[in-house]
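Handover notes (outgoing to incoming on-call)

Open items:
1. Pseudouridine synthase: sequence verified, structure written out, both below. Nothing else pending on this one.
2. Nothing else urgent.
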Amino acid sequence: MERLQKAMAEAGVASRRASEKLILAGKVVVNGQKVTELGTKVGVHDEIVVNGVPIQREQHVYYLLNKPRGVISSAHDEKGRRTVTDIIHDEDVDERIYPVGRLDYDTTGIILLTNDGALANKLMHPKYEVEKTYIAKVNGIIENSELKQLRLGVVIDGRKTKSAKTKLINIDRNKKTSLVQLTIHEGRNHQVKNMFKAVGHPVIKLHRETYGPLNLHGLQPGEFRALKPDEVQLLKNKK
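Pseudouridine synthase structure tokens:
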């Protein structure tokens, strides 16, 4: 069950605040009964009519995509570039979905897409501390002291990052590069790139391999799959 104004907003009737005004004005009917109370809750099988027109409510869908390089993490792009939603809609997925959070244009890896606004907002809220693991190829030979700095936190734009986990995967002394695994639970813009830049090792390539309990096993770049019911429940149970 969810609040009536939320169901209306998710169906594209109006914003949640505008939907509340429609309810208070007596413009909304649920299962044949006019509703004017904002606390009213509805289920997926309830019929909602606004200004005499039944609204079309979508079932919630959840997809996991292995984002390729050079794709925008957005539902639309003003410059006409390919987006993560374009990839999924090409496979005849009709629901209006949007990405949960963002990956940079040149960053690859796991990203979730859904039309479940409540879950998306929850996963992006800092208090839930959803862990995300990245593999970064960086310039230079990274030192243990620098990995420790990343774990303890570095200052970006006047704010210190929260504790992180690091693992050195490989060092290429000939090419003077390092491969590092970094796990964080924040979501600032360009955070991983800025963290490595702060310790003197600009990122060359970046890939996100896990998001909370989810991983990309079996998915090639550009491929996606629907989440299993138990995976969705794991995300919803996040506290």
